[in-house]
DNA sequence: CGAAAGGTTGACAATGCTCAACAACTGTGG
DNA sequence: CCACAGTTGTTGAGCATTGTCAACCTTTCG
């Protein structure tokens, strides 16, 4: 946690047992990605998996643990761009690039599979081989980025946090865990950075939701007490798939008529 | 502009001359995507290319014109998710899905190439065939979504608009046009929706930038008078690729020490 | 046990939104 | 070609949400 960055990267690549014994095998985004036996990496809480600017040599699949990807801005601010959970791939955003475009850091003790990438071949040679496996993962990534965009553009603080909690809940549910009581692996500051709020606002909104009886928070332990109500809050500014396709709502130019506004 | 949605889609698919005569041929994201001769579509200002929920039958490459992709939210608000310019692909975000996940609407009179997609095969059969061509486009899309995410999460109104203008300028420059004087094809409201602000704020910030002498605005006509100064404003909260990787700045856990904050 | 990190809460300020009036431009029909 | 209506853009005043600064509490971990 206080180790110099290099330490994390040189972590002993002890060979872990392969997918057969992996708890994430079903539903793993890396399933069948490479045939050769994979190496593993272990990270302790706070250790970096890779740094921005490092040469891209591998893609990682999480076996156990949680990882955040993040960047820093010109004026020293930190921006979390993603949280990654067991079965997910880390490093996808850098796949076509020679060097990583973000940091990846373990939020807790974490074990990962290393999926080696032929240096430089990512965008070209690897494409045919990987694409059928990678496509779903890329698609997933794109869809999530897209959801983030609409969330950041037009949600209030409350809506953002409720949405975030429901995303977390869905993630836990997908992995067979309770979706109504779970532990957040990240700090308030990291949550805030991710959803575009300050840590104080995150804390306040959590308190407010708790007062209302919708959730229950103690430290990083969260209970969703009224999921239907939460869903309503979160889905207020969410995309409506088929909003009356026959009305002229779809046509542009007439958009000014509607009371369209942001936030 | 006031036509029923169906009209736009049934626009006469008059066969346009192929890539040889296309002004966008160099740098076109669709270059070499499909061998067969392509059909074309023409849209007039305000006409939809496709509607959310329509079955995905094609990908489109813009020959001339500008297209916006947008969605509507549960409470009736509109969210612009992308502006698309000549040489770019439209419909990528829906490529792996059976139905379009957004609207696409022409912002001005527009001509497009139709790249037919075997229904349902997008995610599977098409993958090997298309991937090598599609990869750059998907990568580009991912990178842009990512930039949007950081912009929406931590930029002020001024920073967002300057960034937007510079993006536009880069786009024009890449197509051989002046990057210091150009015409915005979209309304203030559409710009605002895209960058997460209200149209009033957009207007006000433009005025303020004009007062400062950094830009010059009349209607939709924009001149960038002091691009270096604009760059400084925009890059203030922008990702720094290699921020002193050796200092402890990269390590997490110590992040609390730095005055990291959002917005 | 004590220090450090993380979380909560309060007071205040400011950015950006809402409502509203008005001005400028576009396009259309007489 | 002009006048009008409709649309788009500008500007102002007030307000609300959220950020800032700061103090204090709680948990964790050495």
TrEMBL record, chains A, B:
CDD domains attached to this UniProt entry: CAP_ED, HTH_CRP
GO cellular component, one term: cytosol
Any single Pfam family the record assigns to this protein: cNMP_binding
Molecular functions per Gene Ontology: DNA binding; DNA-binding transcription factor activity
Coiled coil start-end: none
Entry keyword set: DNA-binding, Transcription, Transcription regulation
Gene3D superfamilies assigned to the protein according to its UniProt record, in alphabetical order: Jelly Rolls, Winged helix-like DNA-binding domain superfamily/Winged helix DNA-binding domain
Entry keyword annotation includes Acyltransferase: no
Region (Disordered): 241-263
Low complexity composition bias: residue spans: 243-263
InterPro entries given in the database record: cNMP-bd_dom (IPR000595), cNMP-bd_dom_sf (IPR018490), Env_Response_Regulators (IPR050397), HTH_CRP (IPR012318), RmlC-like_jellyroll (IPR014710), Tscrpt_reg_HTH_Crp-type_CS (IPR018335), WH-like_DNA-bd_sf (IPR036388), WH_DNA-bd_sf (IPR036390)
Domain (HTH crp-type): residue spans on this chain: 155-228
Name of the protein in its database record: Helix-turn-helix domain-containing protein
